[in-house]
Amino acid sequence: MTASDGRLVGDLAKAIDESDFAWSLVLVGEDQRDKLAALTGDLLGKPSSNGDGKQITSGYAYWGIGPTIAWAHACADPFYLVMKQSLDSFTRRWGRVRGRVGEGFHHVSFGVGTGHKDRLILEHLLEHNQDLLYLPVDMSSEMLRLGTREATHRVGPRGHRVVPVQLDFSITDNLAELRDLVHRLVGDEPVLYSLLGNTLANFDHDDELLANLTALARPQDRFLLEVATTEALSDDLARDAVEEYSRSRAYREFVTSALLHNTDLTITVDAVQFRGSVEGDRALKVKVVYQNQTGDDILMMLPDRTRVAFPDRDTIRLYLTRKYARRALDGIVRAAGMRKVTGTHSDFAVPRSAQGFGMDLLLLAPGDPVPAPRPDDDVARVIWEN
Ligand SMILES: C[S@@+](CC[C@H](N)C(=O)[O-])C[C@H]1O[C@@H](n2cnc3c(N)ncnc32)[C@H](O)[C@@H]1O
């Protein structure tokens, strides 16, 4: 880089820091035309009555301004329990965990969402590192804009220390590039990575995703993982999970908004269905599908203007989510090559929620599990950490 290039970067940073206008400098990691082609491909799947053909995979559910606004509405809906509880109780749960993070950390947030949780994390990290770099990573540039503004409003860091990255983090090659970028920016200084809001549960190959994301962490780094959990697994509880999601109209509007914005279907939220099942010994699984219930075979126009058949009773999988068995969490973490440093659990404290549903927030570090506590270990500390 020449001296004049260096000056340009410095001037840009200064202009952003000193302006009252809400500039945001976003690193766009992928060609958005390729993303549109991938979405189109996913909507060309074979007919299936149970959501195994056409689908909208995780990042696309939030991609674009319509889905972003719909997501923000759903998060504010008291009937969308998982997110409502997750957001409401995050201050308390993060308060229990943050003391174990350490000092001098930068923050890389996978899936910024509305940015409320990142804000709390930044507030804490900034107390120990005024020069912190904040890299929210999200597939949706609109979500990045919304979430980053909320996360940094009045808490800092300074504008040029905020580097939003538009990237699909489910693609392994993207993560290799991201790793290089992060390491170039922070050197050997430690990074707190986070994957919050039960985002892990939205991926078909969630175990693979977790392993790929946590592989970015070096020994000095930490990884904060938040997942929805259940004490037990049964068909009855799978039905309770379905019931929990199906209550919120705002949630139905969110899950259909990608269809509304990328096809010419006339959307009715009554055609949204929830299918619950038990996924082995690890989770309750909920598939959210859109079913053609018109009684007719219809044609649907895709983003590239091709028309495909959407036969009567055919489905499009809109969203996938899970509640992980609490007893399966250690295995999931271990399989991703991580160990638990500390963790906290909170039950859903609402009468409408099924017994045993809650959220777990885990602080992880690379490496083998810590040995079981010796009998002479401080009992109060052991209880507190588990
Ligand atoms: C369930 S929301 C969680 C938001 C936030 N972390 C919270 O806890 O409130 C998932 C977030 O991850 C982003 N996301 C989902 N799949 C993604 C992918 N494959 N690549 C990048 N971002 C993705 C979405 O745009 C959204 O911001």
Automatic annotation (TrEMBL):
Ranges in coiled-coil conformation: none
Keyword Oxidoreductase attributed: no
GO molecular function, one term: methyltransferase activity
Keyword Transferase: yes
Segments forming domain Histidine-specific methyltransferase SAM-dependent: 70-341
One GO BP annotation of this record: methylation
A Pfam family of this chain: Methyltransf_33
The entry's keywords: Methyltransferase, Transferase
InterPro entries, sorted: EgtD_Methyltrsf_superfamily (IPR051128), MeTrfase_dom (IPR019257), SAM-dependent_MTases_sf (IPR029063)
Entries under PANTHER family matching the protein: ERGOTHIONEINE BIOSYNTHESIS PROTEIN 1 (PTHR43397)
Protein name: Putative SAM-dependent methyltransferase
Organism listed in the record: Saccharothrix saharensis
